[in-house]
Hints:
Strand content: under 5%
CATH class of the largest domain: Mainly Alpha
Helix content: 55-70%
CATH superfamily of the largest domain: Intergrase catalytic core
Structural class: mainly alpha
Number of domains: 2
Number of strands: 3
Shape: globular
CATH architecture of the largest domain: Orthogonal Bundle
CATH topology of the largest domain: hpI Integrase, Chain A
Number of helices: 13
Order of helices and strands: HHHHHHHEEEHHHHHH
Amino acid sequence: MDEGLPAALSSALAEFCRHLAAERALSRHTVRAYQGDIQSLLEYAWHAGIEDPAFIDLTTLRGWLASQHQAGAARATLARRGAAARAFTAYAHRQGWLAVDPGPQLGTPKARRALPQVLRRDEINVVLADCEDRALRELAVGQRSTAALAMRDAAVLELLYASAIRVSELCGLDTDGLDRGRRTVRVFGKGRKERVVPVGIPAMRALTRWEEVGRPILANEHSEDALFLGARGGRLDTRTARRIVHVRLRAADLAARHAAGHADPDAGAAPAVRDAGPHAIRHTAATHLVEGGADLRSVQEILGHASPATTQIYTHVSAERLKATYRQAHPRA
């Protein structure tokens, strides 16, 4: 923690972060975000003459957020930092550091929720078909390591779209989390909450091929029980998984352009497949489920959302896509 803070504030920050990691089981990324926000709050408090968390009050919280606003922080950032401040003061109150919790009285602007990026069905179909073609080509050529990576990439894309799991959940999968008989995968989401998600036949086929043919080629003493492996045999990390998605989408777009006679991406033609990351694949899968008639409660369980309000955005995405199609197709739109 920041050694520049007074001992009481530094100790409070350290204990709060330990609470987030150990008791709430939040990811390292989330804990790091909380730590940055609360460190900023405590530094503001210290510069205001406060050296102990017992003296943090509503005026302190409002002054800190006002300084953030004056510094140009976006509404979404202010909303996140306000939520972090409320979590910290609630914990401080429970620990007895604060006689009264000022957090519930803190008002913050609600972040404007932009509709998530969603690929069309034809786009995701092009991507998955290109991944499959690449895996079959590399298998036919006989380059073992290259073929194994191609099979892995195909399984990664198929599973992300089939299950709508997060990239961190995908990378955390172990081999025993896959149930081929029931065609399900067991994942651990935010807060280490376990859920079982159905997987379609094409995805299970790609996963089975990867596990039986591709994975043994890359596996070594560092692999342990990880389902997905990196090129050196260790557990696939989230950065590499994100790169796989971007690379495979760009490759599918290039292949589709070439097939259509528009191989030059700078020629002005619209992309056959837009670039996107793993979270956009998750949004895509959820939107396609809603468009296909799935009820929101089921989609919420598949996605692992704690609140149905979080899942509600996919109804807006579907409505916007429907309106866009109407505007393009109807002569009097």
